[in-house]
Design brief:
- The complex is a heterodimer of chains A (240) and B (58).
- Chain A is an alpha+beta fold and 240 residues long.
- Chain A contains 7 helices and 5 strands, in the order E-E-H-H-E-E-E-H-H-H-H-H.
- Chain A has a 5-stranded antiparallel β-sheet.
- In chain A, strand 4 and strand 5 form a beta hairpin.
- With 58 residues, chain B is mostly helical.
- Classes of the chains: A alpha+beta (240), B mainly alpha (58).
- Chains A and B meet through helix 6 of A and helix 1 and helix 3 of B.
């Protein structure tokens, strides 16, 4: 868990320049439509993770951070678009400043560059599910119950797991079908072999060896070998 | 995969390791496939879990 102390946002989404003091507390933003409330969330998410959830996922094909996260007047100058966040990490008892440019979303500048601070921030950067957009919340509320788990997967950015699970189920079905076909072929081959060897019950090789040692006496099935050698282990089988 | 998805995949593989249904070699191949980052296809999974032709019956 981390707490936001302050943010400085420049040329990101609809914001030209903005300073916010969060004071490590809960913070709410209100304003008219189009005033840039979501832009603040996007900027914070970008500062922490290098990604903007609203530019990815369903219905966002063709959108990218490089082209669509800078202010519309600065799309040709992604270097001018950046977010500077001051955060406090309670578990470490330390504060740090992250500066992330749109031109280099995967290379934030972290001060101080302590290993434990970087590890904590790396962990957050690996969790794109830390923000929920209005679209995601509305989708979750409106989705029919049967598809709610699918929607939760989307919200938690687990689409790849869902896709992998689908592939595993498909592979399982194919392998089960192949197994059934192979088992049928084995049974047919076994029946053919038994018919040709004129034996009623097909034992494992070990069983035959024991039977052969016991002069061909089968205590369970009482089947008979043809005269001479056991056809499976080539040892004298004898008669019942 | 993101961290949360990696954690789920790791738990899945750990559970497989504790089961007799899948051998260690198949689990390792599955681990590599999931770590690859590409979209996992059913054909790739079928290849992993199909016994080699003329192989020993286990």
């Amino acid at each position: 868990v981390i707490k936001l102390e302050s943010a400085h946002i420049e040329e990101v989404r609809g914001i030209r320049k903005l300073d916010i003091d969060f004071g490590k507390g809960t913070f709410a933003i209100s304003g008219p439509n189009g005033s840039g409330k979501s832009g603040v969330i996007d900027a914070i998410e970008f500062g922490l993770t290098g990604q903007i959830g609203r530019l990815t996922g369903r219905g966002t094909k063709g959108l990218s951070i490089a082209e669509h996260s800078p202010h519309v007047d600065k799309t040709k100058f992604p270097d001018a678009a950046f977010v500077e966040l001051k955060v406090f990490i309670p578990s470490l008892g330390k504060s740090a400043k992250i500066t992330r440019k749109v031109s280099a979303p995967r290379k934030p500048k972290i001060v101080p560059a302590d290993a434990d601070i970087k590890a904590a921030l790396d962990e957050i950067a690996d969790h794109p599910e830390i923000t929920l957009s209005r679209r995601e919340i509305l989708c979750f509320i409106l989705v029919e119950p049967a598809k709610r788990s699918e929607e939760i997967q989307t919200i938690l950015k687990l689409e790849q797991i869902g896709q992998t699970r689908g592939a595993l189920n498909m592979a399982q079905n194919r392998l089960q079908t192949a197994y059934k076909i192979a088992a049928g072929q084995v049974q047919a081959s076994r029946d053919t072999l038994q018919r040709h060897l004129q034996i009623a019950i097909f034992h494992r090789r070990e069983d035959h060896r024991i039977h052969a040692d016991d002069a061909g006496e089968c205590p369970e099935q009482r089947h008979a070998f043809p005269a001479g050698l056991c056809p499976l282990c080539d040892r004298p089988g004898g008669s019942r | 995969l993101g961290t949360l998805q990696q954690a789920i995949a790791k738990k899945f593989l750990d559970n497989l390791s504790g089961s007799d249904a899948v051998n260690a070699d198949q689990i390792e191949q599955l681990r590599k496939l999931l770590a690859d980052g590409k979209k996992v296809k059913a054909e790739d999974l079928v290849k992993i879990f199909t016994a080699a032709e003329d192989g020993d019956v286990k």
